[in-house]
Amino acid sequence: MQNTLNQKIKILNIIEILIKFTDDDHPLSAEEICKELRKKDIKSERKAIYRYIDLLSNYGFDINKTIFPKRGYYLASRYFEIPELKLLIDAVSSASFI
């Protein structure tokens, strides 16, 4: 039962992997994404990863394909970048009225 549930939410796991592990300097290949899915007991083939990435791109996620520094995919834009989050944290912590 758990395995079929994992298969149904595979596309959500793929976007989660792209969010956690990729940026423009650290792309993941389709095979590496498959390995990450296997860690979560989700079976997937490399060709299926291509289809899911196309679906996510069509839905609006900014997923880029690159060949340098290695072949793979990465999530190009996020809601907040790390420096933006640090700036927000500093602003909130230094505000005396909060």
Attribute tags:
single chain, 98 residues, mainly alpha, two-stranded antiparallel sheet, 5 helices, 2 strands, 57% helix, globular
Q: Could you outline the blueprint of secondary structure elements for this entry?
A:
Blueprint: H1 2-8, H2 10-21, H3 30-39, H4 46-59, E1 63-66, E2 72-75, H5 82-94
Antiparallel strand pairs: 1-2
Explain what you see.
Helix content is 57%, strand content 8%. The chain is built from 5 helices and 2 strands, in the order H-H-H-H-E-E-H. With 98 residues, it is mostly helical. It has a two-stranded antiparallel sheet with strand order 1-2.
Brief sketch in words of this structure:
57% of the residues lie in helices and 8% in strands. The protein has helices at residues 2-8, 10-21, 30-39, 46-59, 82-94; strands spanning 63-66, 72-75.
**Strand line-up in the sheet with most strands:** 1-2
Compute the number of helices.
5
User: In this structure, how is the largest beta sheet organized?
Assistant: 2 strands, antiparallel
Kindly, what is the distance between the CA atoms of the first and last residues, rounded to a whole number of angstroms? 47 Å
Spatial extent as radius of gyration: 17 Å
The helix-strand sequence is HHHHEEH
Q: Which word captures the global form?
A: globular
The count of strands amounts to 2
Oligomeric nature of the chains:
single chain
| Overall residue-averaged pLDDT value | 91
Structural class: mainly alpha
Percentage beta strand? 5-15%
* Share of helical residues: 55-70%
Low-confidence stretches: none
